[in-house]
Amino acid sequence: MQLNRQREKIVKTIPLFQVDAFTSQPFSGNPAAVCLLDKIADARWMQAVGAEMNLSETAFVWREADGFGLRWFTPTVEVDLCGHATLAETGG
C-alpha cells in the first residue's frame, strides 16, 4: 500500500497596513504601505509587495539588536529614503 502524503502548507501572517501620513483625517494625506517583519526579507519579495500595493512607497520595518531596519520600495524600484513612509511607520 502506498501512502499518499501531502505537503503541509505553512501560511504565515505578515502585518501590512496602509497609512495616511501628514493627516488626522481618513482618506486624505499621503498614503504609504507599512509592512512589519520579524527579520529582513528578500529584496525581490519586498519589491513584489511594493508592486502589489501600488502606492508611491511601501516601507518595511524589522527589529535589529541596536534599533530597527528600514527599507522602502516604490512599485518599480527600491529607494534610499522616503519621508512620508517613514512617518507612516511611526503611526503618524
Automatic annotation (TrEMBL):
InterPro entries: Phenazine_PhzF-like. It holds the Pfam family PhzC-PhzF. The keyword Metal-binding does not apply. One of its GO terms (cellular component) is cytoplasm. GO terms for molecular function: isomerase activity. It comes from the Bacteria. Keywords: Isomerase. The keyword Isomerase applies. NCBIfam families: PhzF_family. PANTHER family: PHENAZINE BIOSYNTHESIS PROTEIN, PHENAZINE BIOSYNTHESIS-LIKE DOMAIN-CONTAINING PROTEIN. Belongs to the PhzF family. This is Phenazine biosynthesis protein PhzF family. It comes from Thiothrix caldifontis.
